Amino acid sequence: MGFFSFIQEIAMDLGTANTIIISDDKIVVDEPSVVALDRRTDKMIAVGDKAKMMYEKTNDNIRVVRPLRDGVIADFTACEQMMRGLIKMVHTGSRLFSPSLRMVIGVPSGSTEVELRAVRDSAEHAGGRDVYLIFEPMAAAIGIGIDVEAPEGNMIVDIGGGSTEIAVISLGGIVSNNSIRTAGDDLTDEIREYMSKQHNVKVSERMAERIKIHVGSALTDLGEEAPEDYVVHGPNKVTALPMEVPVCYQEIAHCLDRTIAKIENAVLSALEKTPPELYADIVKNGIYLTGGGSLLRGLDKRLTDKIKIPFHVADDPLHSVAKGTGIAIKNVDRFSFLMR
Ligand SMILES: Nc1ncnc2c1ncn2[C@@H]1O[C@H](COP(=O)(O)OP(=O)(O)OP(=O)(O)O)[C@@H](O)[C@H]1O
């Protein structure tokens, strides 16, 4: 067998909560950003869903890590191991040589030079040869199908796990951006705290996220879209006896109110900084909501009512950034000015 090498192109949305990889226009990996490592050797034991199942259930020999916090890499070793593990999932079938990888990775637009360097280094150590970085709001806009090169202002609000990014895009560039480290994970934390304070029940991070998905709401009146109460099981935080607590969406809406207000205020302050011509375009086009956090019930309506500009939730908000990075990698030459 002779030597041969081929270039494989992969696009990655490296998120705080989920990492998605697109190759040949298809989503080939869609896994939680979690890795399980041997505590002594740092060897990878599991990655993605398998590692998430171990989360909050490990013994002393295993460390289960979410390597990203607040949208940026918090644990470098773990991040590299995770990227390596997830990239391996792309290489199905038996190949003698691992391909040379060209990668486009979505990164938060508020990243510092040091943070960008860290993502690039991790990607190179995980096997990337040509590594391009694209800012997530730009990738999200491309993924949603917005003509990012048009002389027209569009606002994207991407509510992920660790950060909310608000960006105004026009003529192929980010005109202004506002990134806050308040997003979906903070909503989960609020629920966890609330359950403990209000109901004396101890819940795990995963259970709190389930509550958010089942009965999370940005409004105290959802009308016909109201979900049924959700029954939470967990230990009493004082007596440790098992409890069963039914939770309704109205109380969760109250508990999430303050954190949602922070996101609202960030959108308002981004609008304040937007030049008038672009502002007019945004009022006409509406504001695009994306990221998993935009799936919270009633959020689009709450923002529309408060800000008086229509908010549209993207079709597949968990995948907009990944889709955009997938399009960018197919058009590296055309979009080179969007990448670094
Ligand atoms: N149905 C839902 N309702 C409310 N929140 C949801 C829902 N589904 C997912 N989420 C939340 O969306 C967040 C993850 O979104 P996403 O995958 O876009 O983030 P990410 O890209 O990994 O994070 P970041 O952009 O901050 O790095 C999590 O906080 C998750 O709990």
From TrEMBL:
The domain of life is Bacteria
Instruction: Detail which positions bind ATP.
Output: T16, A17, N18, G161, G162, S163, E209, R210, I211, K212, G292, G293, S294, L295
Query: What keywords are annotated for this sequence in UniProt?
Result: ATP-binding, Cell shape, Cytoplasm, Nucleotide-binding
Q: What GO MF annotations does this protein's record show?
A: ATP binding
Question: Under the cellular component aspect of Gene Ontology, which terms does the record hold?
Answer: cytoplasm
> What CDD domains would the database entry show?
ASKHA_NBD_MreB-like
Where does this protein reside within or beyond the cell?
Cytoplasm
Which is a GO BP term held by this UniProt record? cell morphogenesis
Q: Which InterPro entries would you find in this protein's record?
A: ATPase_NBD (IPR043129), MreB (IPR004753), MreB_MamK-like (IPR056546)
Query: Where is this protein primarily located?
Result: cytoplasm
Q: Which family does it belong to?
A: Belongs to the FtsA/MreB family.
Q: What does this protein do?
A: Forms membrane-associated dynamic filaments that are essential for cell shape determination. Acts by regulating cell wall synthesis and cell elongation, and thus cell shape. A feedback loop between cell geometry and MreB localization may maintain elongated cell shape by targeting cell wall growth to regions of negative cell wall curvature.
Whom does it interact with, and what assembly results? Forms polymers.
Q: Which HAMAP family match?
A: MreB
The name on file for this protein is: Cell shape-determining protein MreB
Organism per entry: Marseilla massiliensis
Gene for this chain: mreB
